């Protein structure tokens, strides 16, 4: 992938250290969290897809500006933001 991008004149640099966790270990050096169970990975994916469908349906009748459904891997949050156009209250 890097070679293909470089052939197009695109220089890419990836920071392999997680940003959302304390005492982060670089992904390429983390051997403590390297287990993989395809059954549970697929199950988790199906849960995310089902949850995204619920958020998309919840958004369906809203006529204002709305973000797509987002997944934040650091906190495992699914989010869909709706914007009414009104100013937010001051903090």
Tell me about this structure:
- The structure is a single chain.
- This protein is of the alpha+beta class.
- It is 31% helix and 11% strand.
- It has helices at 2-7, 38-59; strands at residues 65-66, 70-72, 77-79, 82-83.
- The strands form two sheets. A two-stranded antiparallel sheet has the order 1-4. A two-stranded antiparallel ribbon has the order 2-3.
- A hairpin with a 4-residue loop joins strand 2 (70-72) and strand 3.
- The longest helix is centred in the middle third of the chain and has 22 residues, at 38-59.
- The termini are far apart.
Q: What's the quick description here?
A:
The protein has two helices and four strands. It has 91 residues and is an alpha+beta fold.
Key features?
11% strand; two-stranded antiparallel ribbon; two-stranded antiparallel sheet; alpha+beta; 91 residues; 2 helices; single chain
Fold blueprint:
Blueprint: H1 2-7, H2 38-59, E1 65-66, E2 70-72, E3 77-79, E4 82-83
Antiparallel strand pairs: 1-4, 2-3
Please provide the ordered H/E string of secondary-structure elements: HHEEEE
How much of the residues is beta strand, in percent? 5-15%
Strand order of the largest sheet: 1-4
How much is the average pLDDT?
A: 86
Query: What is the makeup of the main sheet?
Result: 2 strands, antiparallel
Distance between the termini: 44 Å
Uncertain segments are: none
Shape: extended
Number of helix segments? 2
What class do helices, strands and sheet pairing give? alpha+beta
Radius of gyration from the alpha-carbon trace, in angstroms:
19 Å
**Helicity, in percent?**
25-40%
Instruction: Say how many strands there are.
Output: 4
């Amino acid at each position: 992938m890097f070679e293909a991008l470089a052939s197009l004149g695109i220089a890419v640099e990836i920071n392999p250290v997680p940003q959302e966790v304390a005492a982060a270990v670089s992904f390429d050096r983390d051997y403590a969290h390297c287990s993989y169970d395809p059954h549970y990975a697929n199950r988790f994916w199906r849960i995310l897809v089902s949850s995204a469908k619920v958020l998309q349906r919840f958004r369906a009748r809203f006529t204002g500006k709305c973000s797509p459904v987002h997944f934040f891997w650091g906190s495992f949050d699914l989010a869909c933001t709706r914007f009414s156009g009104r100013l937010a209250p001051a903090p």
